[in-house]
Design goal:
The chain is α/β, with parallel strands linked by helices. About 35% of the residues lie in helices and about 20% in strands. It has three domains: about 10-185, Pyruvate-ferredoxin Oxidoreductase, domain 3 (3-Layer(aba) Sandwich), CATH 3.40.920.10; about 210-385, Thiamin diphosphate (ThDP)-binding fold, Pyr/PP domains (Rossmann fold); about 465-580, Rossmann fold (3-Layer(aba) Sandwich), CATH 3.40.50.920. The two termini are about 40 Å apart.
Length: about 575
């Protein structure tokens, strides 16, 4: 590994672009695995066209000596395996005169965003070079090319390739190695400064996973044993991970005919005593709203993971956005208190989903987990997570309690829930307003009592310090705060770190628990602050409006908001904070 000129914090940003079947995503994944095996950290995000299968793709990779949680401000190296339809990603390929661009001249030209940027452009016939090897592929040439420029050696790359292609046999591995060697040779003499440096081997405790995989693991660790769902981009990988892994712990995943069936299945399974989950995206969540109200009224614990994407309607299925906040918080009709949580990174998808399962079971309420495409489909390296004690355990009615009051106005609002078939504990569970025993009623007093019960059990629960991430100088040391949520937490954190290096103190506040709100905790988190910048990935500033509706702030809120698909970067947040000084 070559000693680096790259900044260990910002690292090096690389992108591979190619048409359907060119292997851009495979190349990015292999380079990420090689880097992590060498002791580096990395984050791989992907951008795709709207096709269900195939179509153009780009792998955006950031490698660094420290953990990486957000996209880079710009690219250091861009390799076009081919340029077919690459213009569709033009705005996402952030190149400038300091960027090195290498691409195959055959078939299509680089997009205008690249050719007009002033970037240094080198043409190499990757496809023709690959033809020199029987079974050769241009993406392996691109892997070798990038590997040498970044400072890897051939053995580091071929070890990863051999692992990926083990089932295809020795001939496929040999052809790929030959392609890597051709790429290595082609890189000789090309000047590229930001090489990387890392140890020979990575920590044995470090994991490489996606946000969707982490979500699935968090669900299983939290006690989920039944899942029902209908596949939808970008949440499907959660189901693909759960299908074999639930079976390992005695659980089951069922593919439903649609989202309405899926959520009603998990309501039924949970009513029967099995912690249950479904995963979907915005269009599917819209169909689940009525059943979420049923689970709220009947006090049946369920977990619904929404991996958000661009909307409305079909929107942009393959790109990220945070615009499902309003439907998650306000979507149900009537007063329907429920839990809304948002993971803050790929690794935090594990913790937040496990915690959501724990809260749903403990509070007998629906819990919505708002992930998004950026976190869900990105891959990164994380230290092996600790085994946490958050395992869902509901309060269960004892046999023979007479008379059994399923919805008793108990202290704390959580009343024992009977498993069907428990002697003496029969009750009706439906969406009608009911008495303490579950008998339907239209009485005003019963209605108010049950509304208060469902509200108070959530508001009065002790959520501890997990409700938010609060970082940076305390009261009296920082006059500026960044207030954000979800996947933008990483970009905001990096912006605060960059500003701190320049002597500018900024506090970061990112709620993980969005509902119920925590007004006292929020006030303490922002004590002494005289300026607040709200950062979010929506067009209508949904998060800012939510904050104004539920919290009192000492100063007016400023907004940095934009819809998907372009992520807000740490550099943009830095500029917005500097501009107001």
């Amino acid at each position: 590994m070559v000693t680096a000129a790259a900044n260990p914090r910002t690292g090096v940003a690389v992108a591979f672009v190619g048409s359907g079947g060119a292997g851009a995503l495979t190349t990015g994944n292999m380079l990420l695995e090689a880097a992590c095996a060498a002791g580096l950290h990395g984050l791989l995000t992907r951008t795709l066209g709207p096709q269900i299968r195939g179509g153009e793709a780009a792998a955006l990779l950031r490698l660094a000596g420290q953990p990486v949680e957000c996209a880079a401000d710009r690219l250091d190296l861009l390799i076009g395996i081919d340029w077919v339809n690459a213009e569709r990603f033009g705005a996402e390929l952030k190149v400038d005169p300091a960027t090195l661009v290498i691409g195959d001249p055959e078939g299509a030209e680089p997009p205008p965003a690249v050719t007009g940027s002033g970037a240094r452009l080198i043409t190499l016939p990757l496809t023709e070079m690959a033809k020199a090897v029987e079974g050769g592929r241009p993406n392996m040439v691109a892997l070798g090319l990038a590997g040498r420029l970044l400072g890897f050696d051939i053995e580091q790359l071929t070890a990863v390739v051999a692992d990926h292609l083990a089932e295809k046999g020795a001939a496929a591995i040999a052809a790929s190695r030959s392609g890597i060697e051709i790429g290595f040779a082609a890189a000789e003499g090309i000047e590229f400064a930001p090489r990387l440096s890392a140890s020979e081997s990575r920590s044995s405790r470090r994991w490489l996973l996606s946000g969707n995989e982490a979500t699935g693991l968090g669900a299983v660790r939290g006690g989920i044993r039944f899942a029902a769902a209908y596949p939808i981009t970008p949440a499907t990988e959660i189901l693909e991970w759960l299908a074999p892994n639930l079976a390992k712990v005695g659980g089951l995943l069922l593919q439903a005919e649609d989202e309405l069936a899926a959520i009603n299945m998990i309501v039924g399974a949970s009513y029967g005593g099995t912690p249950s989950l479904t995963a979907t995206s915005g269009p599917g969540l819209s169909l689940m709203v009525e059943a979420l109200g049923l689970a709220t009224s009947a006090e049946v614990p369920i977990v619904v993971v929404d991996v958000m994407r661009g909307g409305p309607s079909t929107g942009i299925p393959t790109k990220s956005e945070q615009a499902d906040l309003n439907i998650a918080v306000y979507g149900m009709h009537g007063d329907a208190p429920h839990l809304v949580l948002a993971p803050q990174s790929v690794g935090d998808c594990l913790f937040t989903t496990q915690w959501a399962t724990y809260l749903a079971e403990a509070l007998q309420a629906p819990a919505l987990v708002l992930s998004d495409q950026f976190m869900g489909q990105s891959r990164t390296s994380i230290e092996r997570p600790a085994d946490l004690a958050f395992v869902g355990k509901r309060t269960v009615a004892a046999q023979g309690a007479t008379p059994y009051k399923r919805y008793a106005l108990a202290a704390g609002g959580v009343s024992p829930m009977a498993i069907p078939g428990t002697p003496g504990c029969q009750y009706t569970a439906d969406g009608l307003t009911h008495t303490e025993t579950g008998t339907p009623t239209s009485g005003a007093a019963h209605h108010l009592a049950q509304l208060d019960k469902r509200r108070d059990k959530l508001d009065g629960f002790d959520y501890g310090n997990h409700w938010a991430t609060i970082e940076g100088p305390g009261e009296g040391q920082a006059e500026t705060a960044v207030l954000t949520w979800g996947s933008l937490t990483g970009a905001a954190r990096e912006a605060c770190e960059r500003l701190a290096a320049d002597g500018i103190a900024v506090r970061l506040v990112s709620p993980r628990l969005l509902l119920p709100t925590r007004p006292n905790e929020m006030a303490a988190a922002l004590a002494g602050v005289k300026r607040i910048l709200v950062v979010e990935q929506t067009h209508g500033a949904q998060f800012l409006r939510y904050l104004r509706a539920h919290y009192d702030f000492p100063v007016p809120l400023e907004a940095l908001n934009r819809p998907g698909p372009l992520p807000i970067t740490a550099g943009e947040i830095c500029r917005a904070l500097r501009k107001g000084r």
